[in-house]
Amino acid sequence: MYSYAVRGLTRRHRAPDRVVVANDRIDLDIPAGEVFGILGPNGAGKTTFVRQLMGLLRPDEGSIELFGHDVLARPDLPARFAAYLGQSDLALAELPVATAVETTGRMRGLSRAAAKAERDAVLDELGLAEAAGQPLGRLSGGQRRLACVAATLVGERPVLVLDEPTTGLDPRARRAVWAALQRRRDSAGVTVVLITHNVLEAETVLDRVAVLDAGRVIACDTPGRLKAMVDADVRLDLAWRADPPADDPTVRLLGRDAVVTGRRWTVRMPSERAREALAQLTTGPAFAALDDFSLATPSLEDVYLCLGGTSRDLERT
Amino acid sequence: MTVVPATRVEAGTAAAAAQHPAVAAVPPAPPGRTAFLPALGAVYRGQLSRGRVARMPLLFVAALQSVGILVLLRGVVDIDDATVCAQVVAGSTVLVVAFVALNLLAQRFGELRAAGALDYYLTLPIPRTAVVLGTAASYATFAVPGVIVTALFGALLYGLPLGGLWLLAPVSVLSGACLAGLGAAVGLLAPRPELATVAGQIGMSVVLFLGIIPPDRLPGASWVLRDLLPSSYAVDALTESFRPDASWAAVGADLGICALVAVVALAAATAALRRAGTA
């Protein structure tokens, strides 16, 4: 059984002078009980995609089914099946955390007593109990985001759709959110659809991930299988403190394949060759110009870049 | 709520979930929509709690402005003309409602819409009417302290009888509903948040100008505009309440018009919110 089945989803944004295709013929199936991620750089069309899943935007073409129901024909259904965490928290900014969570629970149909009980439970779960009385606007950015996550989790739904739930969170809060999501999936079979541009998040919590670039799904599989696609290659990062000697054969060879950002070079190559190149660099004349280097096994970011992803603003921490 | 059984049959691999979606599992029935009254209560309570944080703009600025106008005009108007004095006090009192319910609410909805923050409400299983009514009611409530302070201060300053002031209750409720409805509609319909702010401020200035100046002294044909402005009926009703021989039929008719405009404006705001939700 799929919680979401998406076919041929296309949405264009019309600016006065041009038309941008934000989502381009997206096909995706998200089985119930899966933690499904959408990874991609800014502007890839991730938010446009999930806003259509929530019935907030109408697609220009294509269809969305939610547990077999046609979302376009019944736009009230996503709000009933799914809880949504958007990017703006302005609606809750001046509310005390406890009130924000409790009134959201009431709006999801909880009784007064149940809303209070769930409020306390979810604030404890996310480590927010101490901030309960404070208005969201007076909290740090991370805690504010965490409070919005709490409001999304209250009044359990079979589906959670989260637009960058952990942006701005410190590592501990981030892990609390990941644990909370996995707990709901394991105990109640909740489906989680989450947007991220954080590679670590994608590799840690997602069952499957769709990689989005310029409105298209360029890959969709488990993080492990995606990484296996580029398994043979490793990433060699070099930082130069001065211009490297151009006549050095290793430098010339690496320079041909490197992606250069300022004084940083990134080269993807088979691990055997990378080790050789590094050995020659560190023993040859180029070493004097070398400031720092690292050799890393592939991450989802490498998958993204290997698949032709163009932007470079994925996070790694 | 129906619970969806987990699809993953083996502990661990995500691949299993991808390959073996639980075919036998029954799709959950859609959770119900939240009934109107609890939803209205929750929106209202949430909005009201903002008053503690945004106390200054929401509660005090409006009253200070109106009290200032009362003091200013005390030196200008003929204090022996009870009708003019009643008009000035009633106009200043309704101005408090216009400031909060029309101006601030238009700004608020304009900002929420521009920031994409309406998504929060639009993705909750509640009737749209509850969002508009709950927010409008909270802004009308924020106006209450200012209304009472302004009316009492004005009546004392201009030597008006206090006996009819009970009328403040229906006047502030109905003018609040009517102006908040207009404010919400303006905020939700304005294509840009700056326009919502400007429209709210112009609306408030019109209420100030046409509400406080007695109708027989208005220049040119601006009495037509005054008759078209719903707040004028609230001002007229309140002006009546300061007279010893108040015509309750006129008060009833004035308040009826306020109520009618309130219904239309709130319906328009609800429709605008619905439209904002399916862009």
Structural class of chain A comes to alpha/beta
Low-confidence stretches of chain B: 1-24
Q: How much helicity do the residues of chain B have?
A: over 70%
Placed side by side, the strands forming the largest sheet of chain A appear as 6-7-8-3-9-10
SS summary, helix count of chain B: 11
The overall strand count of chain B is 0
Task: Please characterize this protein's 3D structure.
The complex is a heterodimer of chains A (317) and B (279). By secondary structure, chain A is an alpha/beta fold. Chain A folds into 2 domains: 226 residues, Rossmann fold, CATH 3.40.50.300; 66 residues, Alpha-Beta Plaits. Chain A is built from 11 helices and 14 strands. In chain A, the strands form 3 sheets. Chain A has a 6-stranded mixed beta sheet, sandwiched between helices. In chain A, strands 2-1-4-5 form a 4-stranded antiparallel beta sheet. Chain A has a 4-stranded antiparallel beta sheet with strand order 12-13-11-14, with helices on one face. In chain A, a hairpin with a 2-residue loop joins strand 12 and strand 13. In chain A, helix 3 crosses helix 4 and helix 3 packs parallel to helix 5. Chain A is globular. Chain B is an all-alpha fold. Chain B folds into 2 domains: 31 residues, no CATH class; 242 residues, no CATH class. Helices cover 73% and strands 0% of the residues of chain B. Chain B has 11 helices and no strands. In chain B, helix 3 runs antiparallel to helix 4. The longest helix of chain B is centred in the middle third of the chain and has 34 residues. The N terminus of chain B is likely disordered. The interface between A and B is large, with 66 and 54 residues.
Briefly, what is this?
The complex is a heterodimer of chains A (317) and B (279). Helices cover 35% and strands 29% of the residues of chain A. Chain A is α/β, with parallel strands linked by helices and 317 residues long.
